Amino acid sequence: MLSPISSQNLRVRRCQAWSNIESSFALNCRQPLVMQHAGGIKYNLSLYRRGDTKYIVNAASEQPLESEPLSYQPKSLQGSLQDSLNAFYKFSRPHTVIGTALSIISVSLLAVEKLSDFTPIFFTGVLEAIVAALFMNIYIVGLNQLSDIEIDKVNKPYLPLASGEYSVATGVIIVASFAIMSFCLGWSVGSQPLLLALFISFLLGTAYSINIPYMRWKRYALVAAMCILAVRAVIVQIAFYLHVQTHIYGRPAIFPKPVIFATGFMSFFSVVIALFKDIPDIVGDQIYGIRSFTVRLGQKRVFWTCITLLQMAYAAAIIVGASSSSLWSKLITVLGHMTLSLILWIRAKSVDLESKAAITTFYMFIWKLFYAEYLLIPLVR
Questions:
Q1: 244 and 126 Cβ atoms separated by less than 8 Å
Q2: Is the pLDDT at 337 greater than 50, yes or no?
Q3: TM segments (predicted)?
Q4: Which distant-in-sequence residues (6+ apart) come within 8 Å of 142 by Cβ?
Q5: Cα 48–Cα 51–Cα 55 angle in degrees, nearest 5
Q6: What is the distance between the alpha carbons of residues 312 and 335, in angstroms, rounded to a whole number?
Q7: Residue 291, class by beta-carbon neighbours within 10 Å (0-12 exposed, 13-18 middle, 19+ buried)?
Q8: What does the pLDDT average to over 211-231?
Q9: Among the listed residues 266, 209, 258, the one whose alpha carbon sits nearest the alpha carbon of residue 236
Q10: Where in the chain are the domains?
Q11: Are 178 and 140 in contact (CB under 8 A)?
């Protein structure tokens, strides 16, 4: 056995050794440990001591940790609701929703002949058409996302299905619900042009996206462009104009100059949207065998083809505006289209075609031109 003095000396030496180890460890841990994830994201690991216990206090992707680990903070109801609304906002593809609503309002105004035509029945009928069309719009863009989950993980990883915010089951429920609500509302309104617009949009939207034999027409560049043209240029202009003209006002189905102009101009615009939307998505389309015009011809050629088509459309619009017998209509439509054409050209010259972000931003700018055109169409006389 050790004597009491020897035992005491042994304990002192052990304490000194342990103290040296702790001092060395603390010195080495003053700087946080930085780990590099394979995807390029940095993680910072810092250690601190509380009493005799060590804690990991930061293990986040370049973001500070606001609470201690293992401390559970349930999401507030307001936060959860905000997240849900944000996910649905992205799922609905808001630029297409805005385009659909504006186009229906604009085309409906073409049927208005005098101020007394602005009746409660008119506003109710237009609102019913907008809501039914928006429900169908969400069905179409939602089905496209359901069919393109793997492609969107490359091209649009922020979308709810691609990012995992929505499960496939959630996407299916949303898509099916909005299709049913659209048809139910259209049926209750009892307008044949409205029902026809919804039905054709449903068929073309389904055939465009769904991956079953003889379908998924988006794989074929020309057919895909024709689908978008048929809905955006023909169905929207003619069917919703007839909805107001025949169903709301009970007038004969005639097509005045503004309706013909709107259909022709939007034919150009719809082809541009169909071509341009694939320019920033070239990588995913190449990987998954989508033979878009961008994949086949290259980004630069398709980009300048789109700009040329839009400039042709604006030139035609200027000619139509100049031929108007109404002075105010002539001035507004000619100057308006000249201004839009000039802005388009200036913006196009400054786009960096090597940058996906720049191309995507310009694509959103084209949608703004699309919105602006629907503000000018009711003024064509």
A1: yes
A2: yes
A3: 95-112, 118-143, 164-188, 194-214, 221-242, 254-276, 302-321, 327-346, 358-377
A4: 91, 92, 171, 174, 175, 178
A5: 30
A6: 16
A7: middle
A8: 91
A9: 266
A10: 91-253, 256-381
A11: no
Helices (H) and strands (E) in the chain, counts: 16, 3
Burial 150-177 (b: 16+ CB within 10 A, else e): ebbebbbeebbbbeebbeeeebeebbee
**74: its two tokens:** 């349930």
In which band, very low, low, confident or very high, does the pLDDT at 20 lie, cut at 50, 70 and 90?
low
| Residue 130 near residue 101 (C-beta atoms within 8 A) | yes
Rounded to 5 degrees, φ, ψ at 179 are -65, -45
DSSP calls for 257-272:
HHHHHHHHHHHHHHHH
Domain covering 91-253 in this structure, CATH number = 1.10.357.140
Q: Give dist(CA 129, CA 147) in Å, integer.
A: 27
Closest CA to 248 of 113, 99, 378, 100: 113
pTM (two decimals): 0.76
Calpha distance 156→124 (Å, rounded): 37
Q: Are 269 and 229 in contact (CB under 8 A)?
A: no
